Amino acid sequence: MVDRTRIASLRAEEEARFVAAHPRSAELAERARGPLLAGVPMPWMTRWPGRFPVFFESASGARLVDVDGIEYVDLCLGDTGAMTGHALPQVTAAISERAGRGITTMLPSADAIWVGEELARRFGLPTWQLAMSATDANRFVLRFARHLTGRPRIAVMDWCYHGTVDETLAVLDGDRVVARPGALGPQVDVAETTAVVPFNDLDALDRRLAVGDVACLLMEPALTNIGIVLPEPGYLEGVREVTRRHGVLLVIDETHTLCAGPGGATAAWGLDPDIVVVGKPIGGGIPCAAYGLSAEVAERLSGPMLGHEIDVAGVGGTLTGNALALAAIRATLSTCLRDEDFAVAIPLAERFTEGVAGVIAEHGLPWHVQRLGCRAEYWFCPPPADGAAAAAAVDEELEGFLHLWCLNRGVLLTPFHNMALFSPHHSEADVDRHTEVFGEAVRQLTG
To answer: CA 260, 123, 287: angle at the middle one, nearest 5?
Structure first.
């Protein structure tokens, strides 16, 4: 078992090692405390391990170099924003060429048509619109759902994550819907806007939707931001049947589950949603997202979308659908995230899973490692069936130590959880390096 008395002393040693290795990052972090709130451009950057954030200098393929010249195997990949790999030459060329001809005009570009056709081919939904982020796409889709159904609430899974959408920052406290811990300044009581049900619980979903006030169910086909929680056999088919029976639109958020294949879990698992949202990976690092609609939903929306006041409908944004983003999406989807790319990345995730599982078994720990496509995560508990069980097993002390240990040895994991993401630019040697580093850490912890 893990020696808890060792974690603090080992963490102190790793902190000292980190500080000694990153003098330039330390200098920049000190300067950043003046002009930047919390010393970072985005608050979640404070979640990285170490006394201060590491500032990066460059990233290419599956490698990242910080301002102190230290190179890392990047298993974070921008938390899927760079799932294709960093600094793709074809994307760089496309955005450079597009920028030279104009970036944003409020007019469509020809690339938009190609992008819509390609997304339709991949995901099977015929009609698409663009957004700047999956958060925006989810916001727009929730408005559409309430408009089409006349119902006030949306439903989400307990401990889900769909970006910064107000209605989705909700969890269950017993039978009560409450704000997710950490949510700042909710504009209204989230119980007024949102129904919450446990993942993998069809009976709970059926009971809640039977009330008749839910416009849509917004869900990931597998939970990804609380550790990977996979659907039980028959669950997703049951979700589709229950939502249809209660007249509730089914919205699948594929922003993270795109790791399952070129058309995400929707294509890989044969799902039949009314709406699909896909976010950051499709632009090769350029901010963008998209949402696809079934023929029926698109037809029902065609009237409102052509209305004179659509510009104040709460859907859009002046830079949304800009020519730069569309050029990036076209360059990315025409050369990346294809069957041949996943044929390289998924076996690497399988190798990662096997390596971590071997270390866990060697030391007889009650941990598990879970994989979804080219994404894998380890958790300090047996496999959970829902988000609440996964959340209850969070071990910030142990997680923080392991992240810092890996970072100090040139392996970068996603800061929020123990997620590793693989691209065609990674190698078996990269996977084996993590297994070696992880195994060394566990040996130190178990004595």
So the answer is: 75
| pTM of the predicted protein model | 0.97
Report pLDDT digits (tens) over 253-299: 999 999 999 999 999 999 999 999 999 999 999 999 999 999 999 99
Return all residues near 409 (Cβ < 8 A) that are at least 6 apart. Answer: 437
Q: Which string of DSSP letters, residue by residue, matches 18-56?
A: HHHH-HHHHHHHHHHTTTSGGGSSSGGGGGSSSSSPPPE
Neighbouring residues of 155: CB distance < 8 A, sequence distance ≥ 6:
194, 195, 196, 197, 205, 208, 209, 214, 216, 217, 218, 248
* Gap between the Cα atoms of 161 and 124, Å rounded: 24
CA-CA distance, 254 to 389, in Å (whole number)? 22
What stretches of 254-406 adopt beta strand conformation (E)? Answer: 275-278, 289-293, 368-372, 375-379
Q: Which stretches within 43-195 are classed as H helix?
A: 89-99, 110-123, 134-149
Strand 71-74 relative to strand 411-412: parallel, antiparallel, unpaired? Answer: parallel
382-425 pLDDT, tens digit per residue, is 999 999 999 999 999 999 999 999 999 999 999 888 999 999 99
Give residue 83's Cα distance to chain centre: 10
> Listing from the earlier edge strand, what are the strands of the sheet with 411-412?
56-60, 63-66, 71-74, 411-412
- Please count the other Cβ atoms lying within 10 Å of the Cβ belonging to residue 386: 21
For residue 250, list its beta bridge partners: 217
Residues of the chain with pLDDT under 50: none
Residue 43's φ and ψ, nearest 5 degrees, are: -55, -35
**Are the C-beta atoms of 414 and 75 separated by less than 8 Å?**
yes
Q: Exposed (0-12), middle (13-18) or buried (19+): which is 106, by Cβ within 10 Å? A: exposed
